[in-house]
Amino acid sequence: MAKEQKDNQFVKEITDMTVDFPQWYTDVILKTELVDYGPVKGTMVIRPYGYEIWEHIQEELNKRFKATGHKNAYFPMFIPYSFLVKEAEHVEGFAPEVALVTHIGDTPLEEKLVVRPTSETIISSMYSKWVQSYRDLPVLINQWANVVRWEKTTRPFLRTSEFLWQEGHTLHATEEEAREETLKMLEVYREFMENVLAIDVLTGNKSEKEKFAGAVNTYSMEAMMLDGKSLQAGTSHYIGNNFASAFEVKFLDKDGKLKNPFQTSWGVSTRLIGALIMAHGDQRGLKLPPRVAPIQVVVVPVAAHKEGVIEKATELADRLKALGIRVELDIRDQSPGWKFNEWEMKGVPVRIEIGPRDIENGQFVAVRRDTLEKTFNKIEDLEKLIPALLDEIHANMFKQSHDFLYSHITECHNMVEFKEALDNQHFIKAMWCGCRECEDAVKAETAASTRVMPFDQTPIDDKCVYCGKPATRLIYFARSY
Amino acid sequence: MAKEQKDNQFVKEITDMTVDFPQWYTDVILKTELVDYGPVKGTMVIRPYGYEIWEHIQEELNKRFKATGHKNAYFPMFIPYSFLVKEAEHVEGFAPEVALVTHIGDTPLEEKLVVRPTSETIISSMYSKWVQSYRDLPVLINQWANVVRWEKTTRPFLRTSEFLWQEGHTLHATEEEAREETLKMLEVYREFMENVLAIDVLTGNKSEKEKFAGAVNTYSMEAMMLDGKSLQAGTSHYIGNNFASAFEVKFLDKDGKLKNPFQTSWGVSTRLIGALIMAHGDQRGLKLPPRVAPIQVVVVPVAAHKEGVIEKATELADRLKALGIRVELDIRDQSPGWKFNEWEMKGVPVRIEIGPRDIENGQFVAVRRDTLEKTFNKIEDLEKLIPALLDEIHANMFKQSHDFLYSHITECHNMVEFKEALDNQHFIKAMWCGCRECEDAVKAETAASTRVMPFDQTPIDDKCVYCGKPATRLIYFARSY
Question: Which one of A351, B38, B55, B239 has the minimum C-beta count within 10 Å?
Answer without folding.
Answer: B55
